[in-house]
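Exercise: predict the fold of this chain.
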Amino acid sequence: MDRAPGRRGLRILLVNQYYPPDTSATAAVFADMVGSLRQAGHDVTVLCGRPSYGARRRPWRPLSRERTEAAPVERVGSTAFDRRRMLGRIVNYVSYLLLGALRALVARRPDVVIAGSDPPLAIWVGILAARGAPVVYSLRDLHPDAAIASGRIRRGWLARSWERLHAAALRQAQLVVCLSPRMADRVVAKGVADDRVIVVPDGAARPSGHPDPRVVAELRSGAEFVALHAGNLGVAGAWETLGRAQRLVPEGIRFALVGEGCRADDSRRLGLRIRPFRPAQELPSVMEAGDVQVVTLRRGLEG
């Protein structure tokens, strides 16, 4: 999406419930994307929700506007209930979808919409905002497949209705960006033409700066060997496996989790040590604190 010489940049609308200061993975990914698009000369506006993911709660307003260094941000007044409780999470999702759709219908028509998958079916907010303009679907979580595989919902009328709505949205997207070839195969199997599906794995910039020995020591808490996971503690992680492993290893070996998410309380009950997210500038210290870094995925959630 580079700008041609002598041509003005595109007006791009990015639709995703989470955006900094939310600490979700999608918030960080889309913040990086906005920065890259701005550097390429495009005008980007973000349509997101009220912070509710590891961020300080803000007073409710139906719509608030802020100007960040990277782009204008519009926040609809979605609810900000505790995400660790499923009912609160669902209400947050639905309120964003409803208010985001209302804002999308009256907002200025963009040249291109980039829609994320937070919350599920946010792609429909993007389609409403596009009003015929191209829609790029940046697919981070494939639902209802993931919800079924993780046991959040059962197969039945709800899953079938959800699948029909999502499949219809997939077919309207001009481009579907997937995280892996296996995810791309699942999307093609839902009826999306192969030439409209591409794979772009996630990445991150190498953290700058040097570890702070005090932060490293705090996170290690005197353990001889630390297996560390840094990031979201969501339904996709195999936390039960880590909990069983913690009970099997000698006392000097410790599994440490740095982050937050809906499975944080369950992980604590499994005996895993959890520390809250650290500021971005402390990321080198977080990486240094682990003798090995743990990336985990529950069986059945591949793709």
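Check your answer against the key: The first strand starts at residue 11 and ends at 15.
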